[in-house]
Amino acid sequence: MRRDTPYLRFTYPIIEHVPEIGPSWDQQKKVKRSWFHSPKIKDDIEITNWYKKKLIEMSLLKNLQEWIQLNQ
């Protein structure tokens, strides 16, 4: 399979995050068991066709964007 889209690291800049000074939020506040819920997943999930269509749409839009930039 060949790559049709650019690498993310070339598209977006690398951002280094500095850890905040002080205690973490989970050290200050207790995490309650009631906050956790099991995910509800439907039995029949079919995203293959949607995914393929979306991939084609994104590719077309990217190609259009590049064409517009070349013709300015």
Explain what the structure shows:
Helices cover 43% and strands 0% of the residues. With 72 residues, the chain is mainly α. The protein is flat and about 55 Å long. The protein starts with 7 loop residues before the first helix and ends with a helix. The model has no long low-confidence stretch (mean pLDDT 85).
Give the CA-based shape. flat
Mean pLDDT across all residues, rounded? 85
| Radius of gyration, CA atoms, in whole angstroms | 21 Å
Total strand count, please? 0
Helix proportion: 40-55%
The H/E string reads HHH
Total helices: the number is 3
- Residue windows where pLDDT falls under 50 for at least 5 positions: none
**Broad structural category:** mainly alpha
Task: Give a short account of the largest sheet.
Answer: none
Query: Span between N and C termini?
Result: 32 Å
- Name the beta content range: under 5%
Question: How do you describe this structure in short?
Answer:
The chain is an all-alpha fold.
Observed structural traits:
single chain; 72 residues; mainly alpha; 3 helices; flat
Topology:
Layout: H1 8-11, H2 25-28, H3 48-70
